[in-house]
Write a structure and sequence with these properties.
30% helix, Arc Repressor Mutant, subunit A, alpha+beta, FAD/NAD(P)-binding domain, globular, 478 residues, 12 helices, D-Amino Acid Oxidase, Chain A, domain 2
């Protein structure tokens, strides 16, 4: 791969990198995304609250405020164009004490300053009529109808597939090790050889400071902030219909309780700064604390129905805001750094902003044949009985259920593997069709899924990994 030349190289295949890549694919630019893992959506983008925030929380005038509100407004149309799960379920920020009402009003005022539409402050009784399971002590809440929930894998994978269909190259298992300035751009030393590019987009999550600091004297510093989550079975999914936040108090920001787009219930996150940027192990103490804090908002959360817990790392920059745009002293190097919450909500808007900056600087015209539409994997459960029967008649593999908990058919798994940027591992399949995400957490469906991966990829079962090499499921010993 030595000496590959591109107009633009995007470092990082998370939601930001893929959003930038999709928007760059509109222009006549040779673009490449470098990702150190085996798939997109392997870092922060896979483990977060899956919330499309209203935009009332960020400081007015900040980049977080600007891109949150813009990204939120774009999400509905984007979900239609790219066929991923998104629902504007609305959110509530609960206030538990009369003396905290001024803080609730302050949050409302912030939202107004940021351009959030449709907000109102409602009484405790109104809250309980909307959400009967919230705690009895609630005295008021901020109601935000523009808040939503999204599938973070679905969004990231949709952006990546659409970028790829429009000519963007994706290079996996390609870790950037060093970046140097050249006369007309940058040279990137990677684990797979040297790559040169006129422009670089730094969307490397918790490692974005490392790459920025290689080319700029104006140093930035990112701390990995760990957040633990509990995911509950679909039986618990209807306890609330909106996303329930707690008003930040002197005790901290609180945790949220939310339905997911797939009908589960999610609670989290905790917040703990960690030195190790790979440290995503959950701890019993953090999960206990999370459950206690979630129970302040919503009564009788059935924590016995937790089917999995996980942790993600947020990229917190010392300046407490996103760093977006061309580095002052490194021409052609564009940062998307310090992207913590509300990064998922902001991603579509950040993508447009950076792609347009780069296209203008490069003098790149738009492609005449760009296609912004993408069809997701067919899900038989969303079809009518007649459509299901016709689908199975045309392709009987859609009639063979592999994952019983989530009702995933062989046809869906084959599509996940064989489509653009298809799955190459068990996690890749899981993120595309939810095989293994249900109550049994892949206890029953793993062997059959491995057989399908082996058949479709033409590799032996011993080489099938959970994700990256080193996570093989079989030893080959009898």
């Amino acid at each position: 791969m030595s000496g590959m030349n591109y107009d633009v190289v995007v470092i990082g295949g998370g939601v930001i990198g893929c959003a930038v890549a999709r928007e760059l694919s509109r222009f006549q630019l040779k673009t490449c995304v470098l990702e150190r893992d085996e798939d997109v959506c392997s870092g922060t983008s896979k483990a977060n609250s899956a919330i499309v925030h209203g935009g009332f929380d960020a400081e007015p005038g900040s980049l977080k405020a600007r891109f949150n509100v813009e990204g939120n407004r774009m999400m509905g149309q984007l979900a239609e164009e790219l066929d991923f799960d998104f629902k504007r379920n609305g959110s509530l920020v609960l206030c538990f004490a009369e003396e905290d009402r001024p803080a609730l009003q302050k949050l409302y005022d912030k939202g107004i300053a940021n351009g959030v539409e449709g907000m109102s402050i409602i009484s405790g009784d109104e809250v309980r009529s909307l959400e009967p399971n919230v705690e009895d002590t609630v005295v008021a809440a901020l109601q935000v109808p523009s808040g939503g929930i999204v599938c973070p894998f679905g969004l990231t994978i949709a952006l990546a597939e659409n970028a790829c269909e429009n000519g963007v190259e994706f290079r996996f298992f390609t870790e950037v090790q060093n970046i140097g300035k050249t006369e007309d751009g940058y040279v990137l030393e990677t684990s797979k050889g040297q790559i040169t590019a006129k422009y670089v987009v730094n969307a490397a999550g918790v490692y974005a400071d490392k790459f920025h600091n290689m080319v700029s004297e104006k140093k930035i510093h990112i701390t990995a902030r760990k957040g633990d989550y509990c995911l509950l079975d679909k039986e618990a999914g209807g306890i609330v219909t909106r996303t329930i936040f707690q008003l930040p108090t002197k005790m901290g920001k609180g945790v949220l309780v939310t339905p997911t787009v797939h009908g589960n219930l999610l609670t989290g996150p905790t917040a703990a700064d960690v030195e190790d940027k790979e440290k995503t192990a959950t701890t019993a103490e953090d999960l206990d604390s999370l459950m206690r804090r979630a129970s302040l908002s919503v009564k009788d959360i059935p924590f016995r129905q937790v089917i999995t817990s996980f942790a993600g790392l947020r990229a917190h920059e010392d300046g407490d805001d996103f760093i977006i745009g061309e580095a002052e002293d490194a021409e052609g190097f564009f940062d998307a750094a310090g992207i913590e919450s509300p990064g998922l909500s902001s991603a579509p808007a950040i993508g447009v902003y950076l792609a347009e900056l780069i296209a203008e600087k490069a003098g790149a015209g738009k492609k005449a044949d760009w296609n912004g539409k993408r069809k997701g994997i067919v899900r038989p459960e969303l079809l009518s009985k007649e459509e299901q029967a016709e689908l199975i008649r045309q392709n009987p593999s859609y009639g063979t259920i592999i994952c019983r908990c989530e009702g995933v058919s062989e046809g869906e798994i084959v599509d996940a593997i064989t489509r653009t940027l298809g799955a190459k591992s068990l996690d890749g399949v899981k993120r595309r069709v939810r095989q293994g995400m249900g109550r049994c957490q892949a206890g029953f469906c793993t062997p059959r899924t491995m057989e399908i991966l082996s058949r479709e990829l033409g590799i032996p079962m011993e080489e099938i990994c959970k994700n990256a090499p080193g996570s093989e499921m079989l030893t080959g010993q009898k």
